[in-house]
Amino acid sequence: xxxxxxxxxxxxxxxxxxxxxxxxxxxxxxxxxxxxxxxxxxxxxxxxxxxxxxxxxxxxxxxxxxxxxxxxxxxxxxxxxxxxxxxxxxxxxxxxxxxxxxxxxxxxxxxxxxxxxxxxxxxxxxxxxxxxxxxxxxxxxxxxxxxxxxxxxxxxxxxxxxxxxxxxxxxxxxxxxxxxxxxxxxxxxxxxxxxxxxxxxxxxxxxxxxxxxxxxxxxxxxxxxxxxxxxxxxxxxxxxxxxxxxxxxxxxxxxxxxxxxxxxxxxxxxxxxxxxxxxxxxxxxxxxxxxxxxxxxxxxxxxxx
Length: 305
Prior knowledge:
The protein is of the alpha/beta class. Helix content is 40%, strand content 15%. The strands form four sheets. A seven-stranded parallel β-sheet has the order 3-2-1-4-5-6-11, with helices on both faces. The chain has a two-stranded parallel ribbon with strand order 7-10. It has a two-stranded parallel ribbon with strand order 8-13. The radius of gyration is 18 Å and the shape is globular.
């Protein structure tokens, strides 16, 4: 059985659907503070759902029973949110990870996949980012993910747990929440354009990102969960698109006014692009969705019906 924490979230629910379609027994542990039960609609009777917090020891122990593999996606996301509330981000992202690792050890879990973040690289000018580079967190969120990686590595070394950490780069696609104050760029830009509103760009728009379609990211998690590869791996498309170019692509497809520019936010990095060769060597992952294809599918999903 595969336990997916944060399985009601954006990436998590996409992964859960893949696993269920493949015939895997899946259990979801999620308190739905940022994910949604509706993301799992249609999976009734196919997936077990435990509605609880990863920091609740009794709930975690119960959810861990019978699990052979854990894919840990639950977290408080967002750099900006962590800057506003660093203690809460640390409690969930680090203490929650520690709780899961301990319960996994006690339950005899064989495989543990941790969700880290491209933000751990910080603002190093080196591109593309590769896994041998040192961590340089610029935000509490990035620091919490670097700490989580260290915990996973320590549990693997100390207790023989087969484990790895994945560093997703700017994942986007259907079911991503555009309504949060801390929503990611693409759902905010798309929904603004569809409403005829000006999208807000923080900074001058020259910052670049390696945008990764959610189905590709979910495939990477599935492959990692079903492999024994140790270490840390980037999960990305391996390209680079500026935020201003992204907005212009969305406006070309949806219409809408020119963007409004606001000051750059604390903790944001300027440029991000991944070297994706390690994941391909370790478990055969390579993203297959171009930015054009991914944006088209995302925009279509967000269009009013």
